[in-house]
Design goal:
By secondary structure, the chain is mostly helical. Among the domains are: about 120 residues; about 100 residues, no CATH class. The protein is built from 16 helices and no strands. This is Vacuolar protein sorting-associated protein 35A. InterPro entries: Vps35 (IPR005378). It holds the Pfam family Vps35.
Length: about 325
């Protein structure tokens, strides 16, 4: 029975890849002859292969990567078109006529990337439009990969400090809001996957969800790399929003993984100055979450920070870091 399912899935994947390759061939031919309408038609047909519900996350990723490689070529063509005088605004409106919502969303993200680069509209307006548009895809697997694509094509175009996209209308707050919104929606889709399908397949679904966790965590890595997030913004805005999503999702797998991500991606100094908030979230996690390991990861990170320089020790004493950590670990051991 299992071998039949695997065999069927291989057939479905092969058929999907064949569909991507065939339409990509005609797309390339249209690109070579500067036929924009045919290029959009065949690219939309190519992206329709990603509408499948028959593949496991691992196989869907293989199909997605084939389409992703072709989208990079399409993005280069869009850039060339704008250099030749084609209006990026007209192009952005044109792709909105693609028939099905999933291909249309991928095409909008691709053109949107070129639109931001052109600076013909504030980056925050295009980013907001794209992240809102992705709400149209509520199928967990398809939605996760679409939003992962949005994250990929936008990460070097966020209005960060020192970025060419920072300006009067675009601020670091806009960049942070965009990434947080994408993260929140992706986490909801990821958590919802546990309820897809029969109860007897729960273990299989959790294994598949584990394979997709980095798609969600990538958003926190992007946040960790935004130069404009200073301690105040992290303390007042970023950490509360992230922890709100972590606590509210009430999912063991998501809570453990995301707490680990928070500890790994943000600076030691920030953890030290927000220790009360971070420790305060631990009792709100699901009882099955391995809080002991979460706390030991945090303890290890801060211990290494303390050992890195004698200059940081006064900070530790000021916030009573070690006594707070010891107290939190003690409570976990007692219960």
């Amino acid at each position: 029975m299992i071998s039949e399912i695997v065999e069927d899935e291989e057939k479905w994947l092969a058929a999907g890849i064949a569909g991507v390759q065939q339409n990509a061939f005609y797309m390339h031919r249209a690109l070579d002859s500067n036929n924009l309408r045919d290029a959009l038609k065949y690219s939309a047909q190519m992206l329709s292969e990603l509408r499948t519900s028959r593949l496991s996350p691992h196989k869907y990723y293989e199909l997605y990567m084939r389409a992703f490689d072709e989208l990079r070529k399409l993005e280069m063509f869009f850039k060339e078109e704008t250099r030749r005088g084609c209006s990026i605004i007209d192009l952005y409106e044109l792709v909105q006529h693609a028939g099905n919502i999933l291909p249309r969303s991928y095409l909008l993200c691709t053109v949107g990337s070129v639109y931001i680069k052109s600076k013909e509209a504030p980056a925050k307006d295009v980013l907001k439009d794209l992240v809102e548009m992705c709400r149209g895809i509520q199928h967990p697997l398809r939605g996760l990969f679409l939003r992962s694509y949005l994250s990929q094509v936008s990460r070097d175009k966020l209005p960060d400090i020192g970025s060419e996209y920072e300006g009067d209308a675009d601020t670091v707050t806009d960049a942070v809001e965009f990434v947080l919104q994408n993260f929140t929606e992706m986490n909801k889709l990821w958590v919802r996957m546990q309820h897809q399908g029969p109860a007897r397949e729960k273990e299989k679904r959790e294994k598949e969800r584990g394979e997709l966790r980095d798609l969600v965590g990538k958003n926190l890595h992007v946040l960790g790399q935004i130069e404009g997030i200073d301690l105040d913004m992290y303390k007042d805005f970023v950490l509360p929003r992230v922890l709100e999503q972590v606590v509210n999702c009430k999912d063991e797998l998501a809570q453990y993984y995301l707490m680990d991500c928070i500890i790994q991606v943000f600076p030691d100094e920030y953890h030290l100055q927000t220790l009360d908030v971070l420790l305060g979230a631990c009792p709100q996690l699901q009882p099955s979450v391995d809080i002991k390991t979460v706390l030991s990861l945090l303890m290890e990170r801060l211990s290494n920070y303390a050992a890195s320089s004698t200059e940081v020790l006064p900070e530790f004493l000021q916030v009573e870091a070690f006594s707070k950590l010891s107290s939190a670990i003690g409570k976990v051991i007692r219960f």
